Amino acid sequence: MFDFLEDYDVWEAFWVTIQLTLYSAIGSLIWGTVLAAMRVSPVPVMRAFGTLYINTVRNTPLTVIIVATSLGLYQTMGIELGGGDSKEIGFRLAVLGLIAYHASFVCESLRSGINTVPVGQAEAARALGLNFLQVLTLIVLPQAFRSVVAPLANVLIALTKNTTVASAIGVSEAALLMKEMIEIESDVIFLVFAIFALGFVLLTLPVGMLLGWVSKRVAVKR
Amino acid sequence: MNKRQAGIAATALALALTATACGGGSGDSDELTIGIKFDQPGLGLKTPDGKYKGFDVDVAKYVAKELGYKNKDITFKEAPSADRENLLVNGDVDFIAATYSITPERKEKVDFAGPYLMAHQDLLVRKGDNSIDSEKDLNKSSLKLCSVTGSTSAQNVKKKFASKADLQEYGGYSECLTGLQNKAVDALTTDDSILAGFASQEEHQGKFKLTGLNLSDEPYGIGIKKGDTELQGKINKALKKMVKDGSWEKFAEKHFGPSGYEYGEAPKITETS
User: Fold this and answer.
1) Hey, which end of chain A has fewer CB within 10 Å, N or C?
2) Which SMART domains is this protein grouped with (chain B) (predicted)?
3) Could you tell me if A188 and A129 are in contact, meaning their C-beta atoms sit under 8 angstroms apart?
4) Whole-prediction pTM value?
C-alpha cells in the first residue's frame, strides 16, 4: 500500500519545509519587532510607515507576494539574492516573501503585548531619564514578549502551513512533492493527502503544545 | 405546518435538489456534463464572456453530437488535473476531455476511450534561439528550463532526460512565459499541444517557437467511468468518424495551426474492451 513512497523523498521535502519555517520565523521575528517599535515610536514618519506597511502587506494575499518576489524582483529586476541555480534563488525569494508577510502579524501581536504593559511604567522610566530606545528595550519589550508567546505561537503555526505557498515559485518543499505525487500516483490520491496532512500535524502540534506551556511559565502575573 | 413537518419538507426539497444536480448519467438522461480544462488556450479555455473554445472542446462537442446530444444539452465543468479521477468516480461528469494522458496508474481508477491526439513533450523557446536542437543539448546546468509545479513534464525533466538542467517550477504556464520573455529562463517545457496553444495566442504570436523534439508520448484519451464499455464503444466510434470525415484535421488546424505545431496524424484507437 505504501510502496509507492519509495520513489519519493518525503523527508527531504519536509526538511525544506522546516528550513523555510525556521529562517522565515527568525526573520519575521526581527523585522516584526522593528515594525512594532516603529508603530509605537515618537516619530510620526516612522509611525506612518509602520501603519502603511502593516495595512498593505497584511491585506495582500501571500500567493501574490511570493509570486511577486519571483516575477518582479528576480525575473524583471534581476535581483538574485546571491545567485546560484533557480532552486536556491527560489528558496531565498520565498523566505523573503514569507518574512515580509508574517512580520506584519508578529508586529501586531507584539503591539498588543506592548499594550498590556501599564503606561505608568513607561512614564516612570521616562521620569528616570531613560530615552525611547531604553524604555522600549529595558522596560516595555521584555514584558510585552512574555505576554504574547501564545499569539506568536499561532503566527508560527500559520507560518509553517503557509510555507506551502512557496511551491508556487518552485521551492521543492512538501506541497510541491504532494502535487507531484497527485499527478503521478492518481490511484492513491487520498493516501497522499493523508500523509502530508499527518506530516504538517506532526510539525505544528508539538510546537503549539510546547509554546503553550512556555507561555504559561513566562506570563507576567499582574 | 409545525416545525417538524417543515424540517421534513426542507430535507425532502434539499434531497430533490441534490438529486437533480447530480443527474446526467449516460443514456436515458437528456443532459450531458463534460469535464474540460478552463485555463488551457488551444485545448480547453473559458473565455471572459463565458464561452468555451479549444481542441478538446471541439472534440467533446463532436462526440456529444454523435452520442445524440444537442449543443444546448451540454454542460461544461472544470476538470483540474488533480480532480479528474474523482469527478469520474463520483459521477459528477459523464466524460472528460482535458489533456488527459492515458497512463497505467490512471487506468486503475478510470477507463479511457481513444486516444484522439498524440502529444509529445517538447520545448518552447524564443524565436531566433537555435541553441537547442537535440535531446543532448538539454542535460547541462547552464540551461534554465521552466515548467509547471508537479506536472509530468517537470518530473520527466528531473528524472529522465535533463536531471542536470536548472529547472524552475511555477504554479502556471503564464509565469514561465513571462520568464521566457524576460530571458530569466531559456525554455518552457510541457506537452507540445499545450505549448502550441500558448504560442498561438494573439499576444504571443511570432514571439516563440517549438523545437520539435519528441521527448515523450502523451496519448490524450477521453476519460470515462470504469467499466462503462458501452460508452467507450460509442465514443471510439464517434472518434473514428471524426477522423474519417475530416473534422479532426479541421479542429487541429484551427487551434494549433498558427503556431506551426506539427500535430501529425490522428492516432489509432487503442483503448477497447
Assistant:
1) N
2) PBPb (SM00062)
3) no
4) 0.77
